[in-house]
Amino acid sequence: MKKLVALALIGVMSLGIFAGCGNGNEKNAAPAEQTNSNVEENAGEESEESGGQEEAANDAGEAVTISAMIQQSRYYDGLQAMIDKLKEEENIIIDVQVVPDAESLNMLKMKLNSGEAPDMIDYNIPAIYDIVDPAKNFADMSNEAWVGRLQIPDNVTCKADGKIYGFPFLSVPGTHGFIYNMEAFEKAGIKEVPATWAELLEACDTLKAAGITPIYVPKDSWVPQILMTDNFAKILGADGAQEFADKLMNNEAKWTDMPELAEVIDQYLDLYAKGYINDNFASATYDDAIAAVADGSAAMHFNGDFFAASVLEANPDAKVGMFAMSMKDGVDVATENMSSPGFVAYKDSANLDTVKKVFDLWSTPEYADLYFADRPGFPAFADVNGGEIPSYLNDINDKFIKSGKVIPEWNYYVMDLNALCESSLYVYYVDAPAKGNMDGAAVLEKFQKDFEQYMKDQGVEAFN
Amino acid sequence: MKNKVKEKIYPGWMCVPALGIYTLFYIVPIAAAFFFSFTDWNMDRMNAPKFAGLRNFINLFGDEVFLRSAGNTMLFAVMTTVLKLAVGLALALLVVQKFKGNGFFRTLFYLPCVLSCMIIGLLFTGILKMDGLLNNALRAVGMESMICDWLGKYGTAMFWIIFIEVWMWAGFNMFLFISGLQSIPAELYESAQMDGASAWERFVKITLPMLAPSFTVVTTLNITGGLKVFDLVYALTGGGPGFDTQVLSTYAYRAFGLGLLGKSSASSMVLSVGVVAVTFAMNRFLRSKEVEA
Question: Which of A420, B26, B175, B289 is deepest in the core (most CB within 10 A)?
């Protein structure tokens, strides 16, 4: 009898413990870090994970819940407005799982590998095609009605099989250049925007003498590298960049084989040596950069044009302009981030029809206009109002975008190395000026070793 | 005889659920990590890891960032243990005395350790930034020469990480020492006083030896915690500037971020073995020094 009682007690205790842990609807919080986000770097922020429970739709139009994984820095107000509208008008609830940008790729790969991917996944299109096998993981959208209304369908077409797997928001994702505070320039007496690198350095001298930080660089390692990815592409040219990238990935060339790349890094380091960069570049955050340019304490910042939108959000009265700049004279192109923010649909989603319906609705002006309400841009769809072309983009639009003088940034050609670069090369770009112990050639030599080791660890044949 | 055997194993049955959970959530993951540390397991080949022998470990010890992380971890563990011990003991000696309000002070000193590390990291990031509270305060009192980018340089960043850790946990150690102090028989102090021993002599000859068990507990806990530090470093500096304040846990996390799960497992194994070895050695040494009243 005692034995039976004891066994029963053990069984009940075990069940009780596991029952408490096994509630599928419970929201679990996990520590997370913001990296390339629009808010101040906050290591205490938590991301919520949904339990993944979906209510089944029936013919009577009951609520349908689908899950979506969205990167923290891209959870814009406009996107939230679209999600809210879906809920109000279509009874489609999007259960948003916000993830830190730096961890989104790993989380995506883990969820795809474990068969537990959310129904919709936010990532850059078509960048994601080079990172994860799209045919194996994502639903083919080539025959969807909205594809016919894309302004530049080639931008989201997978080169390997000619199919479209992603739903983009933008047709021209983002050009790179110096975003500058016009009032800071006026205060320093600079009347003309620099047209060459030498003129830029002169302008920096003038700004420094006027007590204004010429260029603001935060510690977030994804920011300083933009100057390099921009200039590497300009110096190599689109064809040259593709060719060199292919050789690198096949172990037929080394990063140190192109001295021009080291020269770009040297010119970048020179900005620090001359005192044109804020003193606290090793600890300042991305939000500090936005605030500094917004209030005019810093004159310039090099980034994608989305930075200007963030400055205007921080200070709507700020007068902001943008100009493209090349370290090498005579280069008459701008670079762009080739990927648009957008969504892909998980191929094995139980709610694929609903996801397709969402994409269909989101492609219409009624929804898509909401996306651009606070962040004007170049919409992916012909009939969508992307808002007035921001004034800060006028110059770049006239000189480069309209005439097609835009080429992909260097990172586009080495997309597979994204994770490695974020954890090593981009960090060297911050470390080198902080310690003053590496020039451009030394940075690339060090990275070459990391690159070779990484490729060996990944099992790439050409490196083993 | 049979009943005696049954009586002996009867309590063991009660441990089954706890052991089961411990095995499932601790032993199994540790065993899995040990296994995967010898493979080339990575994010792109989640279901097909290949045996790689000692390659991960050889690469680790050839990686200067790993070696730097190990150095920082040892520095952090030793410095914080020594300082938390000293400050905790000092606070305990103060508040163990009977005076009005000592309960309030005990609570005050203990409070930081109940706060989340991430929250504290956020708080101090705001205080220590270039235009943060500390620099503004220095400016206000005319000490502009001391203003600097506290988290932007290795020396000052590491100093603040250690300082904040001590600030957080000295109160916890204080309570451990208080319980130790309260267990020392008062007669020992009385006899020593009668024999003419000074306050310092009583402290050195009675208090310290009798606190040996508390020292064992405090030192073991602090060394272990120091070697495993992650959240405070991650919150304050993210391992930066550059890789300057990387510790072993943030290094393992970085390897995980690269998708190199085998390498990440290997660095976690190195950390685990290090922690176990140091903890056992320290525990053994300190227990040999314990004195019974």
Answer: A420
